[in-house]
Amino acid sequence: MKKPLAYRMRPKNIDEVVGQRHLVGPNKIIRRMVEAKMLSSMILYGPPGTGKTSIASAISGSTKSAFRQLNAATDTKKDLQIVVEEAKFSGQVVLLLDEIHRLDKPKQDFLLPHLESGLVILIGATTENPYISISPAIRSRTQIFEVKPLSIDDMVIAIKRAMTDEVNGLGTMAVEMDDNALLHFARSSMGDLRGSLNALELAALSTPANEDGVVMISLEVAEECLQRKALVHDKNGDAHYDVISAFQKSIRGSDVDASLHYLGRLLEAGELIVVCRRLLVIAYEDISFGNPAAAARTVSAVQAAEKLGLPEGRIPLAHAVIDLALSPKSNSAIEAIDAAMGDIQEGNAGEVPAHLKDSHYKGAEALGRGVSYKFPHAYEGHWVAQQYLPDSIKNAHYFKPVLTGKYEQALAGQLEKLTKGK
Fold first, then answer.
1. Per-residue exposure over 45-77, b if at least 16 CB sit within 10 Å of its own CB, e if not
2. Residue 257: how many CB atoms within 10 A of its CB?
3. CATH C-level class of 354-421
4. Beta bridge partners of 126
5. Checking DSSP bridges between strand 66-71 and strand 93-98, what pairing results, if any?
6. 152-226 in CATH: which number?
7. Mind listing the pLDDT tens digit for each residue in 178-187?
8. 131-173: per-residue pLDDT in tens?
């Protein structure tokens, strides 16, 4: 029986791993381990299909170590014993243990001494938060690394590689794919490469060849095999970004119906991660002090949606969109930080005033550091006038309140009171 495309395309060495540059890129921790041949046990956690098994396989291939794969939920203690015996014979085994959060205590107790001795290099894989779901005994003997969803660019690289690989991929088949279909395969799985590759293989094997003997994978074929609609049929691939732009601008413009419409289009295309990220940006960029409580509610809604997934996740997201669209708007926070960073980028930073400098070391007083600092809590109202900005920009004002909501009106009143007190 032929194995699935996603299985066949697993990397054979660390250089073939797609994405996860924070772990396997030049000078990063896992690459350092491989190059130094100093492997240590680890836990890889992140969403399905993002490369946890691939990294384990690549580590084994790069170090020429024996590699075994078990599942903590379904494989027995006897299976672990067989792996340990093999490790004693070969010197060391890299063991990928899927669903490590379901490892029971007898199996855990059996493994622990072999992890400590280095006989077994455990690579635990889980979609759960290991700080919550995995026992302290295992955590203390492993390093914990987060595996992140692949970017669209990473997905495109992996899909193209699978299309052209003549040994493990589809390179021996006469298969062509249009750009819209490629983008849809890359975007719609939300960083799940396994899902995209399996859908790609289905498309290649189930689509009849044309009169020239070529299998043409169109956007329509990609939609059917992925079971997700594209945002629109768009030759240049711009519609993806156009809909996201329209989504934010509709909320910013307080059009609740348009906001829900574009939310629906994004969710219909399976863009849960995009929606969640964009709503967090909107909450703090466009609403901000206009309705600070709405920003906090948006964070809760996003967390609920990520936990629920689709389709149920649409419900808390709809709550957030309606809340944000109908909230008073303010962009004073982003304007303030951009103005402050603009000064810094132009070289208008200046030296920290002496009375604000760190004074918690011997000799600081002799240097005049912290000597004239006034401790605000020692004064009435817990405030006292003193200079905080560097001399060169001591009169700079970055925060300019937008008086659209009661909270920001209160901030503006407090700012005016403090300004007059200087």
1. bbbebbbbbbbbbbbbbbbebbbbbbebeebee
2. 8
3. mainly alpha
4. 45
5. parallel
6. 1.10.8.60
7. 988 998 898 8
8. 888 889 899 999 999 998 888 889 999 999 999 999 999 999 9
CA atoms within 13 A of residue 166's CA, in its CB half-sphere: 2
Q: Which DSSP string do the residues of 167-213 spell out, in sequence order? A: SSSSTTS-EEE-HHHHHHHHHHTTT-HHHHHHHHHHHHHHSPP-TTS
pLDDT band at 21 (very low <50, low <70, confident <90, very high): very high
pTM to 2 decimal places:
0.62
Residue 63: pLDDT over 90:
no
Where do the structural domains in the chain lie, given as residue ranges? 20-146, 152-226, 354-421
* CB-based contacts of 256, cutoff 8 Å, min separation 6: 321, 322, 325, 326
For residue 49, pLDDT beyond 50:
yes
Taking residues 112-135, report their average pLDDT. 90
Given this model, what pLDDT does residue 235 score? 46
Cβ neighbours for 149, distance < 8 A, ≥ 6 positions apart = 46, 47, 50, 190, 191, 192, 273
Arithmetic mean of pLDDT, 200-217: 94
Residue 44 is encoded by which pair of tokens?
């890889």
With H, G, I as helix, E, B as strand and everything else as coil, classify residue 165. coil
- Could you tell me if 278 and 245 are in contact, meaning their C-beta atoms sit under 8 angstroms apart? no
Buried b (16+ CB within 10 A) or exposed e, 339-367: eeeebeeeeeeeeebebbeebeeeeeeee
Radius of gyration, alpha carbons of the chain? 28
Task: Show Cβ contacts of residue 333 under 8 Å, excluding neighbours closer than 6 positions.
Answer: 284, 285, 288, 289, 399
Dig out the tokens for 319 from the structure. Answer: 């709550």
What six digits make up the tokens of 13?
A: 């060495």
Task: Give kind and range of the element (H or E) at residue 284.
Answer: none
Q: What is the pLDDT of residues 288-311, one digit of tens each?
A: 999 999 999 999 999 999 888 888
CATH code given to domain 20-146: 3.40.50.300
Task: Show Cβ contacts of residue 137 under 8 Å, excluding neighbours closer than 6 positions.
Answer: 108, 112
Helix (H) or strand (E) holding 402: none
